[in-house]
Amino acid sequence: MTSAVVLEHPGLLPGSLGAAAPRQQRRTARDWLVDSFCFLVSLGWVILATFDAASPSPALAEQLPYDWMIVGEALLGLVCTLALWFRRRWPLGLALVTLPLAMFSVTSVAAVLIIYFTVVVHRRAAVALAVTAAGLFTNLFFALLRPEPGNPYWVSTVWGMVITLLVLAWGLFVRARRQLVLSLRERAERAEAEQQLRVAQARQLERTRIAREMHDVLAHRISLLSLHAGALEFRPDAPASEVARAAGVIRDSAHAALQDLREVIGVLRAEVLLPEDPERPQPTLGDLPALVAESRTAGIRVDLRDQVSAPDRLPVAVGRSVYRIVQEGLTNARKHASGAAVTVGLSGAPGDGLSVEIRNRWPVGESTGVPIPGTGTGLVGIAERVNLAGGRLEHGRDEHGDFRLAAWLPWPAP
C-alpha cells in the first residue's frame, strides 16, 4: 500500500501547462503495442488494489468502511485505465482531470503515473516541473487521507516524492533521447539535401564549363568557315582545284561545327549530367601544332615558336588552358586582322610558370570582307579561365602598335 500511495502522487502530473499539443497522428504498430502494454499494466494494478482493499484488514476497513467505497475505488481505477487510450491526444487535459485523484485513490495510481510520464515526455521541461510541483503538493494529502499501516506520515510522503521525481527523471531522459534522435535525423536529412544540392550545383557547373569549352571550339570553327567562304566570294575566278579545296574545308568545318553545336545543345538541355558520363577528349599542349596547321590551311600565316622545357611534365589543366588561349587568339586574329601574320610564342619550365603570347599586326584600313560575327565574350572567358588558374592575362596594343594577347600560368615544380 505504501508504494501505491506513493505512485498515486505522480498522478498530479497534469501536465503540459501551456504547450500546445502536436497534431495527432495515426498510431503506428509500435504505438499500439506500447499503449496495450500500459493498459494491461494499469488494469492489473486496479485488480490487485481492489482485491487488497476487499481483504479483511482492520486498517483498510477504517479507510473504506463501506462496500460502495471499494466499488467506487475500482471504478475510478477502470476509468483512468480506459483514459490511457487517449493520453497521446490529450495528455495535459487527462493529467488535470486525474490530479485530484492523486490525493485519495489507490487504484488509479498506475494510470496517473503513466499519464504523468506522457506529459513529461511530450511537454516542455517547464511544464513538467510545474506539474511535478503540483504532484508533490497533492502527495501531502494522500498520506493524510490514505495512511499506510505501520508507516509514519513522513515515510509515506517521502516515498511519494521519490517515486514522482524518478518518473520525472525517466520522462526527461526519454524526451532528451527522442530530441537527440530527431536532431540526428534532421541533420542526416539536411546533410543529404545539401549533398544533393552540391551534386546539382556540380552538374550545373559542369554543364556551364562544357558549354564554355564548346563556345571556344565553335567560334574557332565558324571563323574558319567564314574565312574560306569569304575567300571564295572574293576570288570567284580562282582555279577549280582551289575552289574545290576551299569547298571541302567549308564542308568539313560546317560538319564539325554542327557536331559541336549538337553537343552544346545536348549539354544545356540535359536534366542530369552524371559524373561517369563520357566526355569528349579535351585538347592539351600537344594539340597545338594541329590547331596551327588548321589555321594555316585556312590561309592564315602563323609562326609557332615553342620554347617550353619538359612539356611532358606540364599539368593537363595548364595545357588545356594554353590551347584555349591560343585558339581564342587565332580566332580574334581572323576576325579583326584578316591577312595579318600571327606569331604564337610559348616558353616556360617547371617552377617558373608557362607564358603564352599571340601577336599580330594591327589592321590598316577597312576590311575587304564581311566581318565575322561574334559574341564579344571570348576574352572575358579566357580572363576568367586564367584568373581561376591563378595566372595573369594582358591584351591590347603594345608600344609597336601590334595587338598582343599574353598570359602567364603557374607551373609548379615537381
Automatic annotation (TrEMBL):
This is histidine kinase. GO terms for cellular component: membrane. It comes from Micromonospora phaseoli. The keyword Phosphoprotein applies. InterPro entries: HATPase_C_sf (IPR036890), Sensor_HK_TwoCompSys (IPR050482), Sig_transdc_His_kin_sub3_dim/P (IPR011712). It catalyses: ATP + protein L-histidine = ADP + protein N-phospho-L-histidine. Keywords: ATP-binding, Kinase, Membrane, Nucleotide-binding, Phosphoprotein, Transferase, Transmembrane, Transmembrane helix, Two-component regulatory system. CDD domains: HATPase_UhpB-NarQ-NarX-like (cd16917). Its EC number is 2.7.13.3. The lineage of its organism: Bacteria, Bacillati, Actinomycetota, Actinomycetes, Micromonosporales. The chain crosses the membrane at residues 32-54, 66-86, 93-119, 125-145, 152-173. GO terms for molecular function: ATP binding; phosphorelay sensor kinase activity; protein dimerization activity. Residues 206-272 form the Signal transduction histidine kinase subgroup 3 dimerisation and phosphoacceptor domain.
